[in-house]
Amino acid sequence: MKLSRLLCTLLSSVIAALALVQPALSHSGTAQDPWSPAHIDMLPDEIRAEVQKWNAACGGSIAAAQHFALYLTVPGAEFVALHFDDFQCRSRAVLCNSSGCLHEVYVATAGRYRRVLTVRTYDIRLSSVNNQAFVELLDRNGTSRKLRWNGSRFVAK
User: Fold this and answer.
1) Of 46, 59, 75, 142, which is the most buried if we count CB atoms within 10 A?
2) What is the number of H-type helices and E-type strands within the chain?
3) What sign does the dihedral 115-119-124-125 (CA atoms) show?
4) Under DSSP, is residue 52 helix (H, G, I), strand (E, B) or coil?
5) Taking the model in full, what pTM does it have?
6) What is the C-alpha separation between 20 and 133, in angstroms, rounded?
């Protein structure tokens, strides 16, 4: 009698655990939609206003992946790099061509953002060394070019 009650309790626990695990699995991995307007909505106001301008050129319904905007902070400045290869646009040709996709870098000084770099390339990477900001431009062949922030713009290293 005690064995059957123990098995019944154990079986009920397993069923309850499976009921909790199933919803969690349905929201993970590839089941989750990586494109979300929320990734645009979370941008600073000035940058969000600029990104929203792509709505018309893209044919509406713009959205972005999680890594659309990447941030780097160094003393005195915060940089935001936008990767339009992680941007959902029906008219892809307005953002990407044979040189690569549009990438933009904004800098905030005194709380206001301004665009300091616009380039079509395969990828860009923000980095810092000794509190100095750098942007590395990568082409399709893996060749890179590094630019250094001089306090007002990116210049050849």
Assistant:
1) 46
2) 4, 11
3) negative
4) helix
5) 0.78
6) 46
In the numeric block, which tokens belong to residue 153?
């713009």
For residue 112 the two structure tokens come to 């206001």
Within 8 A by CB and 6+ apart from 99, the residues are: 120, 121, 139
Structure tokens at 25: 């699995």
In terms of C-beta density within 10 A (0-12 exposed, 13-18 middle, 19 or more buried), how is residue 1 classed? Answer: exposed
Q: Which of 31-40, 79-88, 103-112 has the highest mean pLDDT?
A: 79-88
Q: What does the buried/exposed string (b/e) look like for 107-126 if buried means 16 or more CB atoms within 10 Å of the residue's CB?
A: bbeeeebeebbebebbbbeb
Section 22-49 average pLDDT: 72
Q: Which residues pair with 156 in a beta bridge?
A: 147
Q: How many CA atoms lie within 13 A of 4 on its CB side?
A: 1
